[in-house]
Amino acid sequence: MAEVPEVEIIARDLRQAVVGRRITDVEVLLPEAVRFPSPPEFIASLRGRCITGARRRAKFILLSLDDGQTLALHFMLWGTLSLRPVGSESPPESLVVMTLDGEEALWLTDTLGYARVAVARTAELTSRLKLEELGPEVLDDDFTSDHLARRLSRRRSPLKTVLLNQRVVAGLGNRDADESLWKAGLDPRRLAASLSRDEVMRLHRAMRVVLEEGLSLRGTQRDLFGVKGQAKHRRNVFERTGAPCPSCGTPITHARVGGRNTHWCVRCQPESGAPSGPTQGVLL
């Protein structure tokens, strides 16, 4: 699943292996994969352009081009990007192929076909993708527990729903939200505004630990060079319904919260807010 660790790893790989190289050709294999402009315009906009920078914003990869445009890629659930020799066999899930100088090509693939690309002048792309409306990045140095507390204080929705609101926190996905709440010992159904100061601090710390752990293990998917990351997709609670909690042994509970599949331990993450079981997984 492509969440912040997986996307950030690809962005870092792109800075290492692709920045400074020129796009010599583009092939759109699934027209629906291009959000804007039209596929023929998309191809024309990229041909001959040099990639000058690569960064991540939330779950977008943003490639700066030498003419003032930005190429945006979003993997959605299971998309990914790989760097392969020109002439490699095209996987059936291929959506877009961008040939580079040096006889290599970038392949955007997605088994579900949901991944998307777009290119435009940077200001236009930022506006059309609403990037300026995104919340702060969890891993930014200036994203403190005080900052998180302010963003949660007036939210009357369940905590899980608020954490997935990209205007509150940018890029936190379903898996990493569940894992963060488990590490913090917080019930995902609690109202965001109900958290105490200590609970906000626990949550802030847990979110950073979960993302940093994912990055250190290079995510759960294959990186730009085809090497599989070592992080587990099903970690402590995510998609482990009925399995024993790693901390206390209680079977993991599953329910829909705000329309999203959610997993938690009722003992380590009680509605009362005070963990009643072992606290190995709780960042106190």
Notes on the protein architecture:
InterPro entries: DNA_glyclase_Znf_dom_DNA_BS, FPG_cat, FPG_Glyclase, FPG_N, H2TH_FPG, Ribosomal_uS13-like_H2TH, Znf_DNA_glyclase/AP_lyase, Znf_FPG/IleRS. Its EC number is 3.2.2.23, 4.2.99.18. The chain is of the alpha+beta class. It has 7 helices and 11 strands. Helix 1 packs across helix 7, helix 4 crosses helix 7 and helix 6 packs across helix 7. The mean pLDDT is 94.
Give me some keywords for this one:
N-terminal domain of MutM-like DNA repair proteins; Helicase, Ruva Protein, domain 3; 4-stranded antiparallel beta sheet
Termini gap? 28 Å
* CATH 2nd-level architecture of the largest domain: Alpha-Beta Barrel
Rg result: 20 Å
Low-pLDDT ranges: none
Strand order of the largest sheet: 2-9-5-4-3
- Main sheet? 5 strands, mixed
What is the string of SSEs from the N terminus onward?
Answer: HEEHEEEEEEEHHHHHEE
What share of the residues does DSSP label as strand, in percent? 15-25%
* Mass-distribution shape: elongated
Number of domains: 2
Total E-strand runs: 11
CATH class of the largest domain: Alpha Beta
* Assigned CATH superfamily of the largest domain: MutM-like, N-terminal
CATH topology heading of the largest domain: N-terminal domain of MutM-like DNA repair proteins
The residue-averaged pLDDT reads 94
Structure class: alpha+beta
H/I helix tally:
7
Helicity, in percent? 25-40%
